[in-house]
Design brief:
By secondary structure, the chain is of the alpha/beta class. The protein has a single domain, classed as Bacterial extracellular solute-binding protein, family 7 (D-Maltodextrin-Binding Protein, domain 2). It is about 45% helix and about 25% strand. The chain has 13 helices and ten strands. Helix 1 runs antiparallel to helix 11 and helix 7 crosses helix 12. The longest helix is centred in the last third of the chain and has 35 residues.
Length: about 325
């Protein structure tokens, strides 16, 4: 793992610029992923807005989601552009916002996350994780990849499906019939190449940026989960900023999140076409197959709301 060489949010005295704030930002995703692009855009915009008074150092695809979250919570990095790991670790009772088959679409997610439910989750993350949520990004619907055609639940049964190391996701996918293979994100490509897993699931920018078209033959359109990216800032680093600097960071990050979300929404279809050009065969599941898969997942989701996410119910979430 590449290590940053300066202290968190260091004030560096230079002959040319005087005081300079250095923010270290990390993402577990590779170049080309929408969160890596968002991180680069934030660097570009905040450095331009401050004439270089605030400088952002980037670390792209060098650590896992678990490592990125730990680094940000401890203040070893100042910002993480990541998946749902902060919610899972520090507010696990609210992790349904990032679970298969629960949230309908990004607009539904925003109503939940920006409403009373999300407000409580953010407060817990700030207290327990020492992180402030600066924004979210639409990452696209999560789809499946495989080396065989999948047209319904019968093709998913006993499938060795690579999943992130997320127990709730494992429970849901095993209820559908897969043999879940939890693998950290940096090992995704190799796990598929070596045959430890024979299929995967993820948003199309993940599938593209990790070059899964080299090791997977089929892209199966399931839309089983609305992919979301979170931008978190270490609270100690955040509180070292002046009120004016915080306001600027929020304004720029709002612009970046809007830019990244609109970019992904506009390009999602093009990414699928790119994957086709790279040789992947696209299968669009019909509504009957999708309904059958959802029905297999439903009991596990309902059970998780009783045992792991008891702060609300699935029905209440769907009413948001």
């Amino acid at each position: 793992m590449r290590k940053f060489l300066v202290l968190s949010l260091a004030l560096i005295v230079t002959a040319l610029f005087g005081f300079q704030i250095v923010l270290k930002a990390t993402t577990p995703f590779q170049e080309g992923h929408i969160l890596a692009e968002a991180m680069k855009k934030f660097k570009e915009k905040i450095e331009a807005a401050t004439n270089g008074t605030i400088v952002v150092e980037l670390q792209i695809g060098a650590v896992s989601e678990e490592e990125a979250n730990n680094l940000c919570a401890k203040g070893i990095v100042d910002l993480q552009f990541t998946g749902g790991r902060p919610v899972e670790v520090f507010a696990p009772e609210y992790f349904f916002v990032n679970a298969p088959f629960v949230i309908k679409d990004y607009e539904h997610f925003l109503r939940v996350w920006n409403g009373p439910i999300g407000e409580k989750a953010r407060a817990i993350i700030e207290e327990k994780g020492n992180m402030v949520c600066l924004g979210t990004v639409y990452r696209g619907y999560r789809q499946m990849t495989a080396n065989k055609p999948i047209r319904g639940p019968e093709d998913i049964k006993d499938l060795k499906l690579r999943l992130p190391v997320v127990p709730t996701w494992v429970k849901i996918w095993e209820a559908i019939g897969t043999k879940a293979v939890p693998v950290p994100l940096p090992e995704l490509y190799q796990a598929l190449k070596e045959g430890r897993a024979e299929a995967s699931e993820g948003d199309v920018t993940q599938i593209s940026s990790f070059k899964l078209y080299e090791v997977q033959s089929y892209l199966i359109i399931t839309n089983h989960q609305c992919g979301v990216g979170w931008i978190m800032m270490n609270r100690t680093a955040y509180e070292r900023l002046t009120p004016e600097e915080r306001q600027l960071v929020h304004r720029v990050m709002d612009e970046v999140c809007t830019w990244a979300t609109e970019k992904l929404k506009a390009s999602e279809g093009d990414i699928i076409k790119f994957l086709q050009e790279k040789g992947m065969k696209v299968i669009q599941l019909d509504e009957a197959a999708l309904k059958a898969i959802r029905e297999l997942a439903a009991p596990a989701v309902e059970e998780l709301f009783k045992t792991t996410w008891p702060v609300t119910t699935w029905d209440e979430v769907l009413r948001q």
